[in-house]
Design goal:
Number of helices: 2
Strand order of the largest sheet: 1-2-3-4
Shape: elongated
Distance between the termini: 31 Å
Order of helices and strands: HEEEEH
Strand content: 25-35%
Radius of gyration: 16 Å
Length: 84
């Protein structure tokens, strides 16, 4: 469960399992160098991305990575502030 409390974990897990058939995984990049490929997981209510930055293919060194998680049911905290 990592860094999420049990109540929120149960809710997220239920959503993931309910949306599994409509979840897609995308990959772009090499398969032979760990950490050099971009990937995206998209589901009806969730988007997760991992994108390595400043990669030097010749040196096989990765600078750093960007990652992003979006909860589309609460995009940008709209559900928290009651916005439509």
């Amino acid at each position: 469960q990592g860094f999420i409390n049990d109540d929120d974990h149960a809710s997220k897990k239920e959503t993931v399992l309910d949306e599994l058939d409509d979840t897609h995984f995308g990959w772009w990049g090499p398969q032979d160098a760990p950490g050099f490929a971009y990937f995206r997981i998209s589901a009806p209510s969730t988007v997760i991305e991992y994108a390595p930055q400043d990669t030097l293919a010749e040196a096989r060194e990765q600078g750093h990575a960007h990652s992003m998680y979006r909860d589309l049911k609460n995009d940008y905290g709209m559900a928290w502030i009651g916005a439509e």
